[in-house]
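Quick one: structure tokens for this chain, please?
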Amino acid sequence: MALCDLLEEQVREGERLNTELLASLVHTLSASGPEGGNGPRLLEPVTGEGAVSFKSIKAPPANVVNRLNNRNDPRTTKIAAGGDEHLLARSADVDSKFKEAVLVGAIVKAFFEAGGEPIGNFRLQKAVYFARRHSGEHALNREFARKAAGPYNPSMKHSGGIAIAKQKNWLREARGRYGFGHVPGGAAAEMKEWIDTYAYGEIAGWVADQFRFKKNEDWETLATVDYAIEHMRSLGVEPNASKVLDYIRADDEWRPKIEKLGLTEFSIQSAIIEIKALFEA
């Protein structure tokens, strides 16, 4: 756990430095146009292979800028440069983190409305994983790491969906019968439009209906087995119960799960059958 804390701290520091570098870039490019003029400029994202850069283009008319700002569009953000506010088109990463915050908020809301209890970080992490799998996403190993109680996405807690939802007061921490967790915050009503926009209400409700009565061990078993299956398939390997058990046994972080969760080929096969019913129906 000490090593995990250290690694998470390094991730947070790297994200902080990236934010500062981007802010510096934005200020430099916003303050003067490509021809050296001081007119307002809009930084437009230019996507490439595995990267997002920016190009400077002429800003739209003031009435368009004001309409976008007043709309609070998650794809844009205000930038103060030389006393004027301009728009910075958000990168795909920023937009995905905003959507993650909406999904996190929708899940917290669904679980609270269903049972009246906070949902802890252990379950919230996996609920987001299950929701994204239900939405048709695959191979989430790019974002979720093989942690001891994983799959686990450290950035979600510190700079991603959970952190953003807390900052916006869409959710807050509270103590329930089973310990600390997350409940809707004072500004939770603000989420409704975004939940409807991204159609996350049905997804969050599905996760609450399917998983809220399951034990934590069942959550962890299903998430672990599904993660292994998806990762193997992304590598061109068709999994079965034996291969999944070997996959878990080969990972130093996940090997203790075999004893902790009582994993055998039989229990993994049962999990595979349930996973097919949940995500492949």
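The two ends are 37 Å apart (CA to CA).
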